[in-house]
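Minutes, project huddle
Topic: does the predicted pose make sense with 1-deoxynojirimycin bound?
PN asked that the exact inputs be recorded in the minutes so nobody has to dig through chat later. Recorded below.
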Amino acid sequence: MKISVRCVLPVFLLFTASCSDMMIGKAAKKATSPVHTILSPDGASELTFELADGIPTYHLKRGKIPVMNPSKLGFELEDGNLSEGFAILGYGKRDSISTWVQPWGEEKEIVDNHTELKIFLKHESGKRMNIIFRLYDDGLGFRYEWPEQEALDEFVIMEEKTEFVLADDHDAWWLQAYIPNRYEHLNIASKVSKIDTAATPLTMKTKEGLYLSFHEAALTDYSSISLINRGDNKLQAILFPWMDGTGHKVRAQTPFVSPWRTVKINETAGGLITNYIDLNLNEPSKIDDTSWIKPGKYIGIWWDMHLNTRTWHSGEKHGATTEYTKEFVDFAAKHGFDGVLVEGWNETWDGDWTKNANQFSFTKSYPDYDLEEVVEYAQSKGTNIIMHNETSTGIENYEAQLDEAFALYEKLGIRAIKSGYVGDMIANGQWHHGQYMVRHYRKVVEKAAEHGIMMNVHEPIKDTGIRRTWPNMMTREGARGQEYNAWSGDGGNPPNYVPTIAFTRMLSGPFDYTPGVLDIMLNDNEPGRDKNRVQSTIAGELAIYVIIYSPLHMAADLLKNYDANPVAFQFIKDVPTDWEHTRVINAEIGKYVTIARKDRNSDDWYLGSVTDEEARSFDISLDFLDEGKTYEAIIYSDGPNADWETSPYSFMRFKTVTDATKNLTLNLARGGGVAIRFMKK
Ligand code: NOJ
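Predicted holo structure (tokens), as shared on screen:
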């Protein structure tokens, strides 16, 4: 519901500003004033735009604390600069507050409350460019807009020069950009000054205790942003180029907009997790009827291949056989899983499949896998097959088959695809994160929507909140997932991994981490991989289902390990993947995090808490529960001797009756955690 919209535009605008550009009000400030300021709805943040000697700049404060010192805005185009030599034609301001409902998500209702400032600029070359700022209580978004105009039609961005000049050398948690293996690395914790080039989201803590995260929203037809360190606390945008010798970063045609550049600002680390400005800055859903889009949990013929007990390729150990798939279907039906992922079902995994880029078939099964039969069998049991589309970055090959493959899947009644893009560069030499691939990933999501299919993308472009616009874009990888625990050779994801990524990767959106490995020591792993294991405890592994948000969550382990651990498995069966509310109870980046989430389809709450290598005890208030109601808390806890290194299987479940007036003590072992289901009585 829209509550209020206010807008101010100078009456003497020298060009046509349509009502969709800006609603026209009566009061007008002098358009030639070089300085324009807006306050956030709570009045505590202040954004100032200033045209300083023809150069667009902005700066930002939260209370008295400077968040961004004067920072330049602009571009280098192929045919000249768009970074100086500007004049202000006019400006507009408005407030907007509205609430919208996510068809699925971590929070059902999202409030969008912001103040907007739009600056209309004209360059000395005659080109027009506008900059739109949206200031929220918990952050800033801004984007560039090039309206349709005679002076600019097709154009090429050679570099975006947007600056983020920080007030200090803050603590930062980040991932190196422009390195092999994309976003699949452990986060680096350092001062900002140690950053070379960082991917986003890039998270920081200031000495005043503010938490900041830099990212982008609505990456649609552009190159993805990274931030390069220019010294003296200045970070600057850097875009992935087209790899065809042109050096082009973005090929555009007016009317055109950039993605939003976003800066989240929160007083607590947990506030970053419940910060929804990226979603707010995306367009509303383009899918009218979203009733076919359903969050859920899945199992699959997957972990076997990572342990090498089965293979993707054909032969004796082939995983994707009709018979083995039916075992998974029976298990899914018995335990209520919505899907069964089957990897290695289609021809072309033989040989080095990572090099099969332009050969993969997305319609032809191996002879020992009867696609129609397993799909029918799954559907007759009330579950479904999740199709796997590994491309090995053969984009042209995949795009050439999209229509035929997706039509086949639709005909079969398939509801979800897991796609994959293993490979450092795209087969034709393009970056994974440049405009070419941004276009590709979006094309597949749109095509999937046409066929009523949900997407789970591995080796994806980073999430920038497009699930609001395309709610069939469910979840993605884009980080080191569980698979690194099987074969990375570096021991796997360390205990501080989840308490770190909760404040970095997770800020961009849902993550298909594939949790739920209960055989922590990986007793079935291929000989010679002794260093690999899950660096957690049973309770810690369960907690991940609540901590890491994903509308599609996997129960990743071999089925026999669930049969052997029915008590722990019960939590995996019970935990939902669609939430009405999310509350961060406590958090310190890289050390611990506790999150409570309310199920969207029942009155139950769930809580997950994980810690790094330090054992911790928390006395938490249960005031998130409904007032005046009684709950049975089913607590899946580390056992008395639990320790991720020495006793990872030590685990206990106990129950207690409680309510919102009570506190609860959580005891987390070194590298462990706790998972709780609160059932309303
Ligand atoms: C990497 C993905 O992350 C993993 O889940 C998948 O099993 C392999 N690629 C094969 O597609």
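Observations noted during the meeting:
- Residues 302, 343, 390, 420, 422, 458, 477, 481, 483 surround 1-deoxynojirimycin (CB under 6 Å).
- The chain has two domains: 2-280, 296-680.
No decisions taken; revisit at the next huddle.
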